[in-house]
Structures are given as structure tokens and as C-alpha cells.
Amino acid sequence: MWLFDEIVKFHITELEGQVNHMKYSYYPGCTLKTKAKELDRYGRLSAAKLGAELEEIENWQCCGAVYPQAEDEIATKLSAVRTLDAAKQKDQELVTLCSACHHVLKRVNDDMKNNEYVRTRANNYLKLDVPYEGETSVIHYLEMLRDRIGFDTLKAAVVNPLKGVKIAAYYGCLLLRPSGVMAFDDPENPTIIEDFIKAIGATPIKYSQRNECCGGYIAMEDKGAAQKRVDVILSSAKNAGADLIITACPLCMYNLDANATESVLPVKYFTELLADALGVKEED
Amino acid sequence: MSLTNTVTAEDLIRISGVDPSKCMQCGKCSGACPSYDEMEYHPHQFVAMVRKGQIEKLMASDAIYQCLSCFACLERCPRNVEPAKLIEAVRVAVIRQQGMNHMTANDIPEKLDEKLPQQAIVSAMRKYSK
Questions:
Q1: Domain ranges of chain B
Q2: Which letter, b or e, does each residue of A256-267 get, where b requires 16 or more Cβ atoms within 10 Å of its Cβ?
Q3: Among A142, A160, A185, where does a domain finish?
Q4: How far apart are CA A221 and CA A236, in angstroms?
């Protein structure tokens, strides 16, 4: 009986989520304001077309771009907590587009919810009116498409299906792992980006390297190591028959583009294809 | 915490939150590691060497800068040991020392190219300096 109540409660919460939360807090992050403006612009245009309102968090700070794994790192997590608390103040879910921002915000949120050491110290430092305890729900734009708007609704809204285009989904590492915290998709056999590709009328191409790291974080430290990773990924996608590869991450975008040596494949942000399919790409 | 400047296995266990005694040395983490060829010590060796107290070797190795933070080792570990956290703890233990930053702001200009995204610079400074 208890289990039944919990299941009903869960479904009601899910339903409320769908009805009340078509207005979202939106965190663009540093790179979407500079080198990845297209990721941001096409994301906003498409969301508007699909009836989702993205309200940019005011005075947001950089998330730090990499999640500090050390248990005793507190100061490096504070800017993420400020963003999470800003969304909490508006009682909105927090949507992100950049894989790295998403990763940092989701994991810091998990710390604030489940790690008493981090929660206490971060709150002692921030002195918010009400302590932040992980209340905000952090979702990636792709999760918004899948779980809030729905791929069927997206499919129905497509005016320019990308028929015949063979697209390789590049997940990389930050969206999927660690799966216990990210809860984004099956970490070894994800389907969300392939389902997205189908919804916009194109053909997904599966390849073995789609959830392996491109080495973007090491591009400044060891370019050769990054180039090696990029070649493995691009040749894997190319050999599987892909025309192009899509990503949600500006760091992967840079790396797959700038550090390709042997194999070359066009790399695009998934939002650009989304905007194209929805007929809003040329609006601005 | 010790009152000397020597980093101990206990320090690394505290910083990382990792319990190396859970490791059964199956090597799955190292098999999954995309940086395997680049690393002098591999993820399963980090765990074993911390357990044995061979900290100086790890702190002196370039392997701590070769980890991509991709979490493949952590995801695929059947015992939830989370080697990535231990590698980061060793790196942090090194760069927290006076004058031991691996990359500084002065190193950035020569590494810049037109397309380099801001997050690459921010994350490099986060990973390699304190």
C-alpha cells in the first residue's frame, strides 16, 4: 500500500511538472555568450517555438567549467550554488545547454542535497536567507525536450524534416557520467540524442565511440593527446556512415573541430539542427 | 591531519572520499581509460599505490595531468571505488603546495587560438592551479 501511494505521488509530481513548469530558469554559462553563441541563440529560438519560456538567471556567475571532485573543495562550488538558489527563488526548474555547466550544476546540486559536509559549509559561507538544500531540479535542454515537451510534440512541430541526413550523436562524457548523479540516460547505451535525431526527421547513426571522451579538457595541456582522441571518435563515426556529428558541448565542438587531423567530419550543435527543422533558423 | 608537509595516504583518502581497500584490482578502470597510453600510472595503480603508501611517486608523475576527468573509470568500476576522485586528490595535493601550480595565467596567451572556448581556459586553470 505504501509503495502504491508513493507511485501515485510520483506520478502526480511528474504531472505537475509538466503542467506548471513550461517557464524555466535558464543558465547559459560563459561560453554561450562568446564562442558558442549559436548554441544559445538556436536553443532560445527553438524553445520559444515549442512554447517553453527560458528566463535567464540574473547576474549569473561562471560555474567553474569543471566539477571539483575533492571532498574538501567548497569555495569552487559556491557560484553553482548561487545559480541553483536563484532558480529556487523563482520556483522554476533550471535548464542548461552546455554539457559542462550542466554537469557542474547537477553534481553540486546533488552535493547540496546529499552531502552534509558540503551543504553545511557552503551555507555557512553564503549566509542565504534560507539555506539551500538541493531543492532545484536541474535539467538539460535535451531532457526538457524528452521529458517535458516530449519528442512526439517536437516531431509534430517540425516543418522542415531533415530527411536522409545521417547524423552521429556525440554524447561524450559530461552528460552521462556518473550516471548515479546525472540520471540523464543509460550511460553505456544512451538513446536520447538518437531519439531527438529521429524526431527532427533525420537518420541516427550509431558508432562505438559515441559515449567516450574527446579529451577536450586536456586540449590546453596536451594537444597531441586530444588529437588522438578526436581521430578515434571521428573515424568511428565516419566509418559508420555519418554525414555529420552533433554535440551539446562547446568544448567538444571546439575539440572535434580544431583538433581533427586524420578524419574530418562537420560538427554542429544539436540546437542548430533543431532550429532548422522547426523553421526558425533564419528568423534572427 | 599530519603536522608535517608530507602528504600521506590518509590525507588522500580524506580529500578524495575514496576507500582504496574496496578495490579488488580487476583493472576494469584502466581498461576503460581513454588516457591509458598517456599515463605512467594507470587508474587501478593509483588505487593500489595509495593503499601501499607510495604517494611520492604518484605526486611526481605526469599521469596526474593526463586524466581527462571523463569518469569512465568511475562509472565502470564494479566496486564503486571511484579512481577518478583519487587521481584528482593527488593532483590537488600537489598544486595546493606553494609554487607548485602546473599552469598559470602567464602560460595562457601562447596557448590561445581564435576558436578556443572560454570554458577550456577556465577549466584548465581550475584543474592545474590553485
A1: 9-97, 102-130
A2: bbbbbeebebeb
A3: A142
A4: 25
**How confident is the model over A226-276, as pLDDT tens digits?**
999 999 999 999 999 999 999 999 999 999 999 999 888 999 999 999 999
pTM of full prediction above 0.80:
yes
Same structural domain for residues A121 and A97? yes
Residue in chain B closest to A100 (alpha carbons) equals: B119
Query: How many structural domains is chain A composed of?
Result: 2
Which of B64, B65, B70 is the best residue to mutate to test the A interface, defined by the most A CB atoms within 10 Å of its own CB? Answer: B70
Q: A273: domain range?
A: 152-278
Q: Specify whether the CB–CB gap between A57 and A25 falls below 8 A.
A: yes
β-pair type (A203-205, A166-169): parallel
Give yes or no: residues A159 and A122 share one domain: no
CB contacts of A62 in chain B (<8 Å) are 122
Contact flag B121-A35 (C-beta cutoff 8 Å): no
Cβ B89–A229 below 8 Å, yes or no?
A: no
Q: Are residues A26 and A69 in the same domain?
A: yes
**Grid coordinates given for B73:** 573509470
Domain B9-97 architecture: Orthogonal Bundle (1.10)
User: What is the per-residue burial (b if ≥16 Cβ within 10 Å, else e) of B17-30?
Assistant: bbebeebeeeebbb
